[in-house]
Each structure stands twice: as C-alpha cells, then as structure tokens.
Amino acid sequence: MTIVTRFAPSPTGLLHIGGVRTALFSWLYARRHGGRFILRVEDTDRERSTEAAVQVILDGMQWLGLTHDEGPYYQTRRFDRYAQVLQQLLAEGKAYHCYCSKEELEEMRNAQIARKEKPRYDGRCRERTAAVAGVQPVVRFKNPLDGEVIVEDLVHGPVVFQNAELDDLIIARSDGTPTYNFCVVVDDSDMQITHVIRGDDHLNNTPRQINMLRAIGFAPPVYAHVAMILGADGAKLSKRHGAVSVLHYREEGYLPEALLNYLVRLGWSHGDQEIFSLAELEQLFDIADVNKAASAFNPEKLLWVNQQHMMRASLPYLAGVLREQLQRLGIESDDRALLEGVVAGQRERSKTMKEMAQASRYFFVADVEIDDKTGRKHLLGDGAAMLVRLRTGLADLTHWTAPSIHDALTAIAAESGLGLGKVAQPLRVALTGTAVSPPIDVTAALIGRERCLVRLDRAQQWGAGK
RNA sequence: GCUCCCUUCGUCUAGAGGCCUAGGACAUGGCCCUCUCAAGGCCAGUACACGGGUUCGAAUCCCGUAGGGAGCGCCA
C-alpha cells in the first residue's frame, strides 16, 4: 500500500511554525515510506480566506523544501463534488434536512447548559418528513445513536469515544455550502489519504469524521494527532513569540533546514543527536516516536541549531544566502570568492545569516567609519604609533595572504616586545572600524591590500584629528 | 458543565520494572584555549506534579487527586 499523507492548512491566518511542524511530519512520513505528500488548501470559509495567505503557504512550503507530490487542491473548486456526496447521503437516508432556527438551537443549548449537560443537537428534525415553508434547511449527518468509535492514533494509541456523546453535525449550511468536517471527509476519501497527521485540536472531531467516512463507504485512514507548540512562556502561541509567518524566519536569516531541524526535535528525538540533515530525517523519522505532550518554543535553541547548520553547510550555498541578506542592507556583491571567504570567517561568530551580514559590512564597502569609543581606545597613543609601524610593515609584503600577514604581524610584535594583541587590535579597528572581527590575518586578507593601506592611512588621520 | 487529551531539570528531550545515587542538548555560572568576538573543550547547579497501590524492586504498571490543554458553531 502506498502511503499518502496531506497537509491541509486553511488560508485564514499565517502559516506559522505550528503548521510547519505538522507539515514537516506529514512530509517526512511520506518520504520515509516512499509515499506521496499532498497539499490541500481548505478555503471553504470565503469570508476569512485570503489570496495573500494562500501565497504565504505556497512560498513558505517552497522555501522550506517541503515539496508536494500532488496539488495544491482547493476546496472551493470542489463544491460540485461535495454537493454530489451530499445528495447521495440524503438519498440513502444517512443525512437529513433540519429546519431549526438559530434561535431555537440557541434556546436548546441554553437549556442544556443550565442542566449541566454537554450542549448538543437533540435530533428533533431526524424524523421530519415535510418541509417547513419559507425556511432554507441545513443538512445534518445522522450520527449513530449508540456504540463507540475507536480512533487508532499513532501517537496516542487507541482513543475511545461513545457515539452517545456525539450529535448530528451540520454538513451543509442553509445556503447549500458544505462545512469543514464534511469537506475533509470527502477529500480524504477521494484523495485516498492513508495517514492523517494533524494538530491534536482535531482529535475530538475525529470520531465524527470516521462515522462519516464509513457512511460514504471509505475505510478510515490511520490518524496521528500531534500536540501543539506553545510560546516560550508556556502559554498558547501568540504573535508575541513565534506565531509569525514562517517567511519571517527567512528574513531573520535562519536556514530552512535549521528551522526544520529545530521543529522536528520538538516532540521527537533520536538518541542524543541534536543536528540532523534532511536526508537523515528521511531515514530516521517515525511519527509513532512523536511525544504526546505539547512543547514550548525556545528561540535560544533555534539560534543554536541555526548556527550549527551554518557551520556545516557548504560555502557556495551560504555565500548565496549571505548575498541576499546583504541586499536587504543595500549592499550588492557578486564576488563569490569574497562572499565565501566572509562566510568561512564569520559563520562561527554569527547565529544567523542576517547577523552575519550586519557584522560584515566592512568587507564590502569602500570605507569604514571608526566607532568613536573603540577608536579612542585603540588608535591613540601607543595605538597611533602601532598604526605607523603596521603601515610600513604591511605595505611591502610580497604576498597578501593570511599566512604571510600573520607572519608580518608576529614579527612586528616580537621586535616591539609586545603581545600580538597590541598589534592586532589597532589594525582591526583601522580595518573594520570595530573591535570585533574574524582573525585579523584572515580579515586583512579578505579586505585586500589596497583597501587595507587606505584604511590604515585614514585611521592615522582619524587619530590626528582627536 | 460535559467529553477527550496531556504531566521527567527554566526549556527541548532520553528513559518501554532492576543498566537511574535519572543521561544528553539549549540557556546559566566557572575554568581552559586565545590577537578581538566567537567556536571548541572541561566542570557545576537544577527534574521523575502529588497521593495511594501492584512488585523483592517503579520515572517506568494500576487507581485516584491536582494542574494544564482541546472540543462541545450554519469557524476551520
């Protein structure tokens, strides 16, 4: 049997990390078993669905590399099919028209709540044979009155529901449009979904869906309800901490494989391993190993995972990402050698690619601006004298490479009777304008002889002006 | 209120009766390395929600309690 999974977001809000994680689980599960992964957009709520939200889903999935094998399907384009199944259910007596007014239903609910009962439709229109004049009826599914439904859940194990707890839910509104639970059932059956992996807020809907699936003659799929992701403070995820569009993480300089790695570790693990490539996950991931409990989103760990991936990724790949991040800062560069050199020098001191770009301006611009406080500390007095020595010592270097620059600097330090720090810091400030950069020899090599000498001159001028 | 779900360090997790005086990771503190900042290495502190059972033995099994979450829409 071919495994078929699906990701079925509704384009009413943002595609955030919670949705991404269930998408990842579905995608991984299909990959792992050589199955198919379907993308289905549940846009039946025409009031709240937006084109922009659909685009974020599509762009986000593409950025993450969670490619679908089928779709995207849109529920709004399948209304004919839903109507067809609806007619079939009505004809077979498995669904019925309900003429109850909203006021009547409201009254019923209030009475039940007053009696401390679970509010539910009592089925009063079940046996009605005649239409009520002037009322456009809704259609309700005839749920079994007794017996039980067992949801075979891959993460929770079997979960038992009594049919008596369930009521006859509305599957078509009075305007004829189908509702969520009904569409899902028709789609899952038509698309021959074998494994439904979704948030556990749907666990309670599952027995109803199973009953409907059976009514239309489809063997229910296997379910896996995964817990939601909580905010860093343990409260429900909100815009404050992470409920932002997944594309936000791209802007912030996270690598997609790192985000995925972080997300998969929320509720899943493989021994003591923390860092996984996508290829490894395809081999190792199993939905049955996913935890039942909700987990909190930890931004610090995401940062760490991101850096781990940065330190493992290929230079050409990261150079491309750095180039994009620099563009966001208004810096253009097509110098692949420079970009790769900067990545190699900066990746162990940057948590994100955005941070790397921000800390690497001096490699790409013509001139640097010397931070006043830093300059005063390193470029005046002994520092000023060192600038002179550096200028003469570096000007005639035969080869402008990190090793030869390093040799020249240690020679200057030795003959001055100073530590390397007294030599490197003035140079660093002169070249970068700041007190922080990759190893000074590497930094100088990347900036190049011409710009280095110019910057040394400028630094001297800067000091003279103080 | 009713139904369902969940509960190991601050956080993510390992743990499927003895290997647990509970392991790893992030974060935190200290030390080492060191031209800055990092990265890396070493060390430290901190957890089985609570109460009963079952058992020679329980984080692991059972039952309660407490706490948290979800659902109960002509929303998805």
Strand sequence of the main sheet, in spatial order? 1-2-3
Mean pLDDT across all amino acids:
91
Count of beta strands:
12
Q: What does the main sheet amount to?
A: 3 strands, parallel
Keywords summarizing the entry:
466 residues; mainly alpha; three-stranded antiparallel sheet; three-stranded parallel sheet; RNA-binding
Please give the structural blueprint.
Blueprint: E1 4-7, H1 17-32, E2 36-41, H2 51-64, E3 70-74, H3 79-91, E4 95-98, H4 102-114, E5 138-141, E6 148-153, E7 157-162, E8 170-172, H5 180-190, E9 195-199, H6 206-215, E10 222-226, E11 229-230, H7 246-251, H8 256-264, H9 278-284, E12 295-296, H10 299-312, H11 315-328, H12 336-346, H13 353-358, H14 361-364, H15 372-378, H16 382-395, H17 402-416, H18 420-432, H19 440-447, H20 449-464
Parallel strand pairs: 1-2, 2-3, 9-10, 11-12
Antiparallel strand pairs: 4-5, 5-8, 6-7
Helix pairs in contact: 1-9, 5-6, 8-10, 11-12, 12-19, 16-17, 16-18, 16-20, 17-18, 17-19, 18-19, 18-20
The chain binds one RNA strand of 76 nucleotides through helix 4, strand 7, helix 5, strand 12 and helix 10.
Would you mind describing this structure in some detail?
This protein has 466 residues and is mainly alpha-helical. The chain is 47% helix and 11% strand. The protein is built from 20 helices and twelve strands. The chain has helices spanning 17-32, 51-64, 79-91, 102-114, 180-190, 206-215, 246-251, 256-264, 278-284, 299-312, 315-328, 336-346, 353-358, 361-364, 372-378, 382-395, 402-416, 420-432, 440-447, 449-464, and strands spanning 4-7, 36-41, 70-74, 95-98, 138-141, 148-153, 157-162, 170-172, 195-199, 222-226, 229-230, 295-296. Helix 11 (315-328) crosses helix 12 (336-346), helix 16 crosses helix 17 (402-416) and helix 18 packs across helix 20 (449-464). It binds one RNA strand of 76 nucleotides through helix 4, strand 7, helix 5, strand 12 and helix 10.
